[in-house]
Structure formats: C-alpha cells, structure tokens
Amino acid sequence: MDRSFNGIEKVGYVFSLILILAFWGCGGDSTASGNEDISGNDIKIGDIRIPGDSSMQDVEKDIEIQDIEDVKDSIDSKDTGVDVVDTYEDIITDVEVSDTTADIVTDVCVPDCKNRECGDDGCGGVCGSCGNNALCNNYRCECLSGFGNCNLKWEDGCEANFSTDPHHCSDCATDCGKDSVCNNKVCACQTGFGNCDNLWMNGCEVDFSLVESCGTDCNNKVNCGNNSVCRSGICSCAFGFYDCNGKLSDGCEKQGDPKHIWSKVFGGDKVVRSYSMSLDKSSNVYIVGYFNSSTIDFGGGALANAGGDDIFLAKFDSNGNHLWSKRFGGSDGDYSYSVSTDSLGNVYISGYFSSSSIDFGRGALGNAGGNDIFLAKFDSNGDNLWSKRFGGSNNDYNYSVSVDSSNNVYITGYYISSSIDFGGGALTKDAGYNIYLAKFDSNGNHIWSKRINGTSSGEISSVSVDSSNNVYITGSFIGSHIYLGGNILDNAGGDDVYIAKFDSNGNHKWSKTFGGTSNDRGYFLSLDNSNNVYLTGHFSSSTIDFGGGALTNSGYYDTYLAKFDSDGNHKWSKKFGGSDNDYGYSVSADSSGNVYLSGSFQSPTISFGKITLTNAGGDCGIGTCTDIFLAKIDSNGGPVWVERFGGNNIDWGYRVSADSTRHIYATGAFAGSNIDFGGCPLSSTGDLSVFLIKFEQ
C-alpha cells in the first residue's frame, strides 16, 4: 500500500482519530445498541475509506493512523465480533477536512554549518574534517603543535611538519632550498652538500661529489681538473688516466695503458730483486726475493739488512695495499727464489742460505757448510709455523716450491754435497751435482725424496703439480745423458732442456729432452685447468724441436714457449726473438686456456708473430739494456697482445701469474728511471728495485 502523506491520506488520518474518539465514548459499561461496541472493548479500525473530495483537518495533530486508503466509495469499519457499516453521510457531520497538502506540515531537520569549519551540524552530522595533524576547536580547525596548514586546504590537514619539512622549516614561510634537510626546525644540508654562500634561498648549492667542488665541506673543496673523478670527497683519476706530476691545475694529464690497473716500486740504496710470486684464492699477492740494500720498505716500515743478501717475503691485497712484510737472514748471503700458497691461505718459501744460521721465527737453523737448503711455512698473517734445513758440507741449492691440492709440499733443486738427507735417508751424489725432488706433508714431515741420475751435472728450475697431484719438473743438464726414471735420455750438446712427470708417489710417468748443439735451458713450467703443460725458457742452439718441427734461432738466445698434453704429447711450440739475447722466464695459464709469458729482451727488436717490440735502449751490447716483455698468447699459440716495459738500463721480468678474475700480476727488477707500466712512470731508488704490477687480461 502507498504510505506517502498526500492530501487524501491526511484527511484519513484526521477522520480515523474522530472515529476512534466516538467509539471510545460508547465503551465501558454502556449497553450495546445500534452501532455501539456492545462488548465494551476498544474499537480497532482496520480500514477506512474516505471519498477523495472530503475536507478534514487534524487540528490537534494527535491522530495515529494504522491504515488509510483514499477511495470514492463508502467507509467500512470492522471490529472483532462486530461489523459496523456507516455511510459516507453518517460520519462526516461536524468535521471539515481539506484535501490540500499545504494544510499539513512535516517536521524536517535542516543542517546548519554556517561559519563552521568542523563540528556538529545540528542534525547528527558534521560540517567538515580538519584532516591529519589537526583538531576541531569551537567549530574551527586548528593544527597540532609543530604542524602547519601551509597550503590552506583542510582536506589534507596540517601537511607541513615544521620539525622535518625543509620547505616549511619552523614555519610556513621558511624554505631551506634544494638539497637541504630540516633538523628540529633548523635548516641543514644533506650529506655531501654545502650552503657555502650562507643564503638559504639558494639552498645547499655546492655538491661536494662534483669534480669542480670535490671535498668534504665548504672550507675543504677543490677543482680536480681534467680527466678526473671525485670519490668520497677525494680527487682521483678517471679510468685510464694518471696524475703523474701531482698538480691539480692540469688534472690527470697522462692517459695510460687501458690494461694497467696499478703498479708499485720497492727499492733501497743498492740491489733488491723479486724472483717469484704466488696468488692465494682471494688474489692476495705474495712476492719473495732478496736484497743487499741497507733497508727496504714495502709499506709496513723499513726492514733492515743484517749483512750480505737478506731474504724478504711480502704480502699485498688485490689492490696492491701492503698487508705485511718480513725479512730473514744472517751476516752472509741468503736467497729465496720461490713462493707458493696452499688452499688454506698458508704460504711456503724455499731457497738456500750461507749464513751460519737463519731464523724464520721458530728458532735458528744452523748451516752445515757452504749453502744449505731451507723450506719454511707461514700462516696468512705471516707467522712462522715451521721451518726445515737440508744440506751437507758443500753447496746445495733450491729454486722451486709447489703445493698440491692436499697441501703437500714439493721442493726441487740440486746438490753438490756428497749426500743430502730430506728425512728419508741419504741421497748420494754420482756426478758434479745431482737434481733432487722431495715431498713433505703440510706439517713438514718427509713423505718421499729422490735423486735424478746423470753422468754429469743437472739443474732444476721449476716444479708444478696438476689437479691429480701429479708432479712436473723442468730444468737443464750437461753431460752425455740423464736418467729421470724411464729411458736414458741423451744430450745433444751443451745444456739440454728436460721435462718429466711423476705421480704423487714419485713414480716416473714420462720424460723428454730437447736441445741442439749449444746451450738450451728449461726455465719454468705451468699447467692449465685441463692439465696441459706449458714450458718456457731460452735456447742458443741454431734450432730446437719440441715435437712440432724445428724452431730456428734468430740471434744468441731466443725465447721459446711449448705446449704439451698431460701425457707429454706435443700440441704446439713457438719461438720469439731478435738478433741478440732474449729470455723466457715465466708462464701462467688462465681459466680460458690463454697463457701469459714474461721475460726480457736485449735485441733491438723482438717479434711475436706480427707484433714487434722495440728495445728502448737500442742495441747496446750483450747483457745490458734489457727491456721487459709481457705477452698474452691464446690456446693455439697465437699472440693476442704484447707489451714492452723498460728504459735505457737493465730491466727483468721474472714472474707472471693469472688469477681467477681475469687479472694478471707480474714482478721483477729494474734499474734506472722512468719505466712506464701504463700508469705513472716509476724510478729505481738504487742499483735495482722491485716492481709489482696488476693488469687486466
């Protein structure tokens, strides 16, 4: 049923009230008659029908309507148990009802938000929200202490925090400017910026990370100059550039070799030589050698010489920073030519000493006569763990040490004493001097040792171990033949090269010799991840054949590089040389099968395939004016790049080593000034100084 209050319904509302009152008067104890409620009960009106043109008014506004339907028919009234039927005329007698809507007024609440920003609107609602960081006080929005409505928009509240907002710092009017912060209502600069003009309207206008304003604060900033960068407020050179003169005015004025990363020089007032180098798993660098300068400083303070030649051992990180350095020696000549590291970061050095005793940190080792051999182990901090001495009454020598995957240690050299004992019994001499190979565990305990037999004399220069702990050695021998454990190998004349392989128990696997009628030397060998063997040295014979055909000598000594598989089969061989003496001293393989070759050349020019290097000193005679070469050779023996380093004096490239991160390190010795490894030129401080360099591969 439609319950909207139109005009007819209002009439019905009034009429119903009148009808209820009329019946109420006839209730109680009165006797029923006519249309009365004879039971004395209240009359309940269920449905009233009023003609549409009736006119009624509820003057007291107290009629309650249950249900009214406005029709033009008669009105039916029902009560429980009684039917009352009235005609239209009977009911409408004294009441006039108007059927217009204007006669009845409905009660409606009108919200009142005039002059109110917030609070109650009088009808149960609110006039508005003050937003965040605000409250409503007497119908007005107010900001909490420390906040401000700086944009005058209450819908986003008091958006400005005067303690932290750099654009409204302490109040709406204070803007700290660009690159600033607001700290407890006070303007300040972001880290790395400065308000050097003291005008906050400009903000923090100086960026201390820029080349033109590099520094830490307004009182400590400089313009770094050309080809430079600013790192942490300190000027440094852009990659490939160097500030060699130390002048900021011209920036980093020298463009260097793009492969160069860093280079170092260490020297004294006389001679310092670095013969060997080793890298650990973190690419920390260890160098070893000897010096007769009064002192030498690798970065940790001066090491004083005790007399004659003393041994040094120094460690650097991969960035060339000094970590520690040590000196060992007595009053006579003491020498180390080899260093190696194990899987735990321990380091081993070997060599020989002629002083009456030598102490590596665990007590003095006494000399039995002439030169005695030593082997010493240190931890990664340079602390001596143990040291050993071997030798007889004559001169005995060591030139190489290597460590296998089980941290067993191998040393090689030769001895002139009538016998030598490494812990497994005396090895006697059967020629002028004999080669030895000895193995020890990581605690220095003897495992096995053996002598290499020959009819004359032999030298051993290098030992290396493959991934299966097989052992390889190389060197040279003079005399009619040499016996390494297989067939007797004959000498072709002068010094011949030999290479041999033994298993981890010292059993002979294979051996080979190479040479011509003159002197030919095996100087160094290295292995790659596939256990291929790379051999380098130099030869003065007119030709030498490593299995791939004769290589022809171009002058006196020429450098060679030969590759063999793990069974000794020839893969390829190359020679590099000019008209004078050119020496191969070291080779190292990377994880991609490339190899790196270092040495020295005295020839006016030396050729590596199509690449030719020119000696800086020219042809100035045998044994002088040697320059250093460093070459990258691919897995097939082809030169990739070749570099020359040196001045007009003697320069020696003794050792090169590749790490697992595509970097190479090289060391050696040089004399004179202004040797350029690709960075700033270096100068020797005495007769010979040590260099240490790092390159990209």
Kindly report the spatial arrangement of strands forming the biggest sheet: 32-33-36-37-40-41
How many beta-strand elements? 58
Low-confidence stretches: 1-104
- Approximate helicity band: under 10%
Number of folding domains?
Answer: 3
Could you provide a short overview of the structure?
The chain is mostly beta strands.
Walk me through what this model shows:
This protein is mainly beta and 697 residues long. It has three domains: 7-103, no CATH class; 208-255, no CATH class; 260-696, YVTN repeat-like/Quinoprotein amine dehydrogenase (Methylamine Dehydrogenase, Chain H), CATH 2.130.10. The protein is built from two helices and 58 strands. Strands 32-33-36-37-40-41 form a six-stranded antiparallel sheet, with no helix packed on it. A four-stranded antiparallel sheet has the order 19-58-57-56, with no helix packed on it. β32 and β33 (409-415) form a beta hairpin. The radius of gyration is 52 Å and the shape is elongated. The two termini are 96 Å apart. Mean pLDDT is 86; it is low at 1-104.
